Each structure stands twice: as C-alpha cells, then as structure tokens.
Backbone:
C-alpha cells in the first residue's frame, strides 16, 4: 500500500532497507546463534546517518520523529529483530532526553547520539518491578550536589553497550511512584557496573544485561525534569516508544510473510506449487491483511505522536498490541507454511517466530497494553466524548 512518504522519508526507508539486505541478512543467523552484539552494523548505521532521523535539527539531527524512527526499525527488523534492536533501544533511551532534557543536557548528549558515536538505554525494570513499574526499589539519595544510586536494574536492552542510561530511581522512597526521578548515568561512572548477560530465546544479537549501582555518585545536574517526575518520564517515554516496538514487530512479520510467499511458490507437492492450494492461499491472505492493517495503524499513531497530539497512551498501546500479536501469528503461520523446513534452523522463519515473541512482552506486556487501552476508553466515556 502507498503511504505517500516524502522524498526524505523514502530515502531513509531505502537506506535502512539496503543496510538490512546487504549487511544484516548475511550475518543474522550467525549473530543470533552466537549472541553477537552487532557493533559493526551499528557503525554502518551511524555512517549512514540513521541515528539522526529522529533527533531535532538543532542537535545535529534531521528533525524527524517517531515516524521516521519506525520506518528504519521496520526495515532493519525485516532481516533481524535482534540486530535492529540496538538501534530501536537506543531510540528508547534517547526519547526521555528529547522530551525532558534541559538545553544543556540536550547539547551534551544528543549530538553524540545523533552521530551514532554512542548508544543510549532506558532503565526502568527491576526483578520485582516489571508490569508494576511503580514498585521499583533502586534509590537515588541526595547528598550535597550529587545523587547516590543503589540498586539493580534488570533486562536492560543495550546494557553494557550503551554509554548513556536514563535510570528511574527513588529520590523519595516514601512517596512511591511520585517519589521517583529520572537520572542520566554514564557508563564508566564509579559504582556503576554490569551484571550477567542474558541467554535469550530470541533477539539474541541484542545485549540484555543487569545494571548494578553500588554507591554510584552522579551530579544533580543529571536529573531529567524535576525530582518526583520519574514515573511521568517513564510513562511518557513509553507512550512514544511503543510504536517503535510495533515497527519492529511489523518488520519481523513482513520478513516472515516474504519468506512464506517465496517458499510457497517453490515448494511442489501433489504436482503443484503449494501456493496453488487454497488452504495455503487463505493463510497468506490473512497474514498479508494483518500485516498491512498493523502497518497502517503503526504509521498513523507515530504521525499523531510527532504532531504532539495529547493523550496518545491508548492509540500507542493499540499499535503495539496489534503489531506484536500480528507478528506472533504471522511468524507462527510462516513456520506452518514451510512445514518441516520451517522448524529447522537452516530456514529463516523459526528465528522470526522466536524474535516475535518478545514484542508481546517487553515495553509493557500486551495485557498491560490492553489495560491502558481500556482505561483510556473508560476515561473518554466519563468525559462524554
Ligand atoms: N502519561 C502520563 N501520566 C501517566 C501515564 C501516562 N501514560 N500513565 C499513568 N500516568 C500517571 C497517572 O495519571 C497517575 O498520576 P496521579 O498520581 O497524578 O493520579 C500516576 O501516573 C500513576 O498512575 P497509575 O495509578 O495508573 O499507575 P499504576 O501503578 O497503576 O500503573 C501502568 C500504570 C500499569 C500503566 C504502568 O505501571 C505501566 O505502564 N506498566 C508497564 C511498564 C512497562 O512498560 N514496563 C516495561 C519495561 S520498560 S522498557
């Protein structure tokens, strides 16, 4: 379907597609199997200016937004949902700086992120605080003109690889969600270390690590926004970033659909390519319809976010739910169409099924997304809209 991209958006999409085909495709299976972080591909993305697309022009970006980021993430994810995540998770870590950073903080960090010299990461989750994001225990105690961080963050994407972390920690542990703050911490700061690297089902080329803070001192000037705004920073960041997960899911689904269509034309059974059988045709038709519907919703939601529409939590959650449930369904059906071959590592669909699964879980489980959508609906109804 034609989405009437501007010339610049088409160029961005084409550039991401080219990198995906020429650089990611040849290494995707190996990086997945060995769990290799794609430092080399990140460098190529940086040289091709892909990290600039969602950063404001005054900080060396191209001035686009979530829509441009989504175009890139989708194309990269068509070849590998793990490698694309180094890019997407850096986007997630950059959003709070764009939304809540002071001019000084933006000047310090955004040009480096735009150039792709360094990656960012976002650290909210802890062992006991996943869906219940307000249950975090990591503290940031004020001491003179510094904060002293103590605690452990879990499952942080780009952990160990990123240089800049937005960490949500309690500056006032007695006030729960309202006592949390968002604080920037740089890799290399004394008292900031990395725990074990996780061995995952999918997205295996991406780095998922613990962040361990042990009397880690950072200047108070690293605070994003004001003290007590941490939960708001986290929620607003996730409202913006969830279409990014949708775009990743969309790319994974499109890649699986492409593989299933191609295979169905080549695989001959009962004297005909299996694409001639209605049972397979109906599956492909449903897969394509779900992918296109997810794309339309994801693109539109990203555009609404970029237009600074208020109250996007509901539609942002819808895009994430729709695209990630689609990715799970489409990748599972692609494995079915490839049959026994689909189950084998030699063929590139079982990996897509493994990669798709996380998109229903992270940046808020799809159960949490449905809760967000329902609450939005009810609030709108109370307001009589
Ligand atoms: N934008 C702005 N404010 C928001 C908000 C949003 N999207 N969502 C909640 N808030 C505000 C609420 O309005 C409320 O403010 P007041 O205290 O002034 O009334 C405050 O934040 C607390 O909200 P609520 O009571 O709804 O918080 P809950 O603890 O019940 O949690 C959910 C709400 C479940 C939506 C939240 O915890 C969440 O998103 N969880 C998933 C976290 C997640 O995505 N984790 C994945 C890891 S991060 S990669």
Residues:
């Amino acid at each position: 379907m034609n989405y009437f991209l501007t010339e610049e958006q088409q160029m961005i999409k084409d550039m991401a597609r080219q990198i995906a085909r020429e650089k990611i495709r040849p290494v995707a299976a190996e990086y997945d199997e060995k769990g290799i972080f794609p430092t080399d591909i990140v460098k190529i993305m940086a040289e091709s200016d892909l990290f600039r697309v969602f950063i404001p022009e005054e900080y060396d970006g191209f001035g686009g937004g979530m829509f441009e980021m989504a175009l890139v993430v989708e194309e990269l994810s068509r070849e590998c949902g793990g490698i694309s995540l180094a890019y997407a998770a850096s986007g997630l870590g950059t959003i709070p700086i764009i939304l809540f950073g002071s001019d000084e903080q933006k000047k310090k960090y955004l040009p480096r992120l735009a150039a792709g010299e360094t990656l960012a990461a976002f650290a909210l989750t802890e062992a006991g605080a996943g869906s219940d994001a307000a249950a975090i225990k990591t503290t940031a105690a004020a001491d003179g003109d510094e904060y002293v961080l103590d605690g452990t963050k879990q499952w942080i994407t780009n952990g160990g690889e990123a240089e800049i972390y937005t960490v949500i920690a309690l500056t006032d542990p007695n006030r729960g969600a309202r006592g949390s703050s968002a604080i920037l911490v740089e890799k290399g700061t004394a008292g900031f270390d990395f725990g074990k690297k996780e061995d995952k089902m999918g997205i295996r080329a991406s780095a998922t690590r613990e962040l361990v803070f042990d009397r880690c001192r950072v200047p108070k000037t690293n605070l994003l926004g004001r003290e007590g705004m941490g939960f708001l920073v986290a929620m607003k960041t996730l409202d913006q970033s969830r279409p990014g997960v949708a775009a990743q899911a969309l790319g994974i689904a499109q890649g699986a659909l492409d593989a299933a269509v191609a295979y169905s034309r080549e695989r001959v059974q009962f004297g005909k390519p299996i694409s001639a059988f209605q049972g397979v045709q109906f599956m492909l038709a449903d897969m394509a319809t779900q992918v296109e519907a997810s794309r339309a919703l994801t693109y539109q939601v990203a555009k609404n976010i970029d237009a600074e529409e208020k109250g996007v939590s509901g539609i942002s959650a819808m895009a994430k739910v729709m695209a990630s449930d689609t990715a799970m369904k489409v990748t599972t059906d692609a494995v079915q169409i490839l049959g026994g071959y689909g189950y084998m590592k030699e063929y590139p669909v079982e990996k897509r099924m493994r990669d798709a699964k996380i998109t229903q879980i992270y940046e808020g489980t799809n159960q949490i997304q449905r809760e967000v959508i329902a609450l939005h609906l009810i609030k709108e109804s109370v307001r009589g809209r």
Summary: The beta strands are 120-123, 139-143, 146-157, 164-170, 180-186, 192-197, 208-219, 223-224, 268-269, 272-273.
